[in-house]
Specification:
The structure is a homodimer. Chain A is an alpha+beta fold. Chain A has a domain of 118 residues: Jelly Rolls (Sandwich). Chain A contains 9 helices and 8 strands. In chain A, strands 1-8-3-6 form a 4-stranded antiparallel sheet. In chain A, strands 2-7-4-5 form a 4-stranded antiparallel sheet. The longest helix of chain A has 27 residues. The radius of gyration of chain A is 17 Å and the shape is elongated. The model of chain A has no long low-confidence stretch (mean pLDDT 93). At the A-B interface, helix 3 and helix 5 of A face helix 3 and helix 5 of B.
């Protein structure tokens, strides 16, 4: 049932079967309809999600009142509103299924409990945080240093699935540009 | 000599005296002149720094050719160009002492060696990454969602030392605004 989650975890850390059972026991399966929210802004992010089918989008409302997407997570990836998950403060971000999705959720309390009882879970979370830090910082640098065309070209190179699989509206929200600008960029290339 | 570093580490994790000695043994003291660089862009960030006196600035050159500051680290804080430190790819960022400074440096190789031999060091690094993630993401959100005045007001509230201690040029580079705009904001408040 959760083969994808098992192989994801065991690809990152060395755990015994007993430890793996403890870890997996904390993950609950959830089915989501397209466009269903699993977190709204103002709520505290108390779960982390692993996607086995579909796609979660993490977004916020920017200064112009537009939705700006920070991150898309597809199959075999984790996603949460991580600042709120870490700080237990209210989230600025929403999390939404942009396709019909199947995910596994682990509670913050259980996630941190595992840090105390399974030393390798510290390593798992460390690798998770390293990846999240690198991804997020590259997003920050790209907002600060690239124009729309450069951002789109980098997206095509590094994350073509986003362009292939999702609507223009969502791709535009990820690049923080209008759909009109996105259409113009596409026709140029 | 490195009391500040010792108390920083032992405030985060529970280590034996023997483990602490191993950890401290990897930190080398360095004295820096004002404006001295400890990392230039294009280099790989192979050290993490703990500041015992002075201030390190992490900055990059933005799309307009201006210096944009991502982070100031003062006494009792760690700092490095963390994306490059994690990925071993070339850094987009510079690290510079903006005051005469005394720091301790640990090599990437030694830092990761400690993860393998001292389980609590995984926890130390996890806390380090959580803080770095939260700090950096808040910076990203502030660039995306706040205007210059809001950014300046938040800085005064959360990090007044930056305004008190550093030059207008450096404060402006942190807010990613011109010195003229900063002067205007200051006269308004």
């Amino acid at each position: 049932m959760n083969d994808l989650l098992t192989s994801y975890i065991t690809s990152k850390i060395a755990v015994t079967d007993a430890e793996l059972d403890i870890i997996l026991g904390f993950f609950k399966p959830i089915k989501l309809r397209k466009n269903e929210l699993v977190l709204a802004n103002g709520e505290i992010s108390q779960r982390s999600f692993f996607i086995t089918r579909g796609c979660l989008r993490i977004f916020f409302i920017n200064e112009s009142g537009q939705e700006a997407t920070r991150y898309f997570a597809f199959e075999n990836q984790f996603a949460t509103a991580l600042v709120s998950f870490i700080t237990a403060e209210e989230s600025d971000e929403f999390i939404q299924a942009v396709e019909e999705s199947e995910i596994y959720a682990i509670n913050h309390k259980d996630f941190y409990y595992l840090l105390g009882v399974i030393p390798q879970w510290e390593k798992f979370y460390r690798i998770y945080l390293e990846l999240a830090y690198v991804t997020n910082t590259r997003r920050l640098m790209s907002f600060l240093m690239q124009d729309a065309l450069e951002k789109y070209q980098q997206l095509l190179k590094e994350n073509p699935m986003i362009v292939r699989r999702l609507s223009n509206r969502l791709v535009a929200s990820y690049l923080n540009i209008s759909q009109e600008t996105l259409s113009r960029l596409k026709s140029k290339l």
